[in-house]
Amino acid sequence: MDIGIDDLEITIEGEFNQAAFAGNDDDRTGLQDIAVSMTVDADADEDTVRKWAERSNHGARFPTTSKTKRRSN
């Protein structure tokens, strides 16, 4: 896919149990319920960017969402 990207913002969010990390809770440490979102400013239409994002997400074990901002020419 030949897409010109002017700006790409990726946000990664997850739940972090500070008590477990400090050893005060038996729950699992580390990030849980991870979600990734992307905002893309590109020269392609939304459907093309969505297909590109899905290809980029191949094999990922967390949900992703994407939002497209089209260049104004």
Key features?
single chain, 73 residues, alpha+beta, elongated
Cα shape: elongated
- Output the structural class: alpha+beta
Strand percent estimate = 35-45%
Question: What kind of sheet is the major sheet?
Answer: 3 strands, mixed
Number of structurally distinct domains: 1
Textual characterization of the structure:
With 73 residues, the chain is of the alpha+beta class. It has one domain (5-70). It has two helices and three strands. It has helices at residues 18-21, 46-56; strands at 5-16, 31-42, 64-70. A three-stranded mixed beta sheet has the order 1-2-3, with helices on one face. Helix 2 (46-56) links the parallel strand 2 and strand 3.
Give a quick precis of the structure:
Helices cover 21% and strands 42% of the residues. The chain is of the alpha+beta class and 73 residues long. It is elongated and about 50 Å long.
Write the layout of secondary structure elements.
Blueprint: E1 5-16, H1 18-21, E2 31-42, H2 46-56, E3 64-70
Parallel strand pairs: 2-3
Antiparallel strand pairs: 1-2
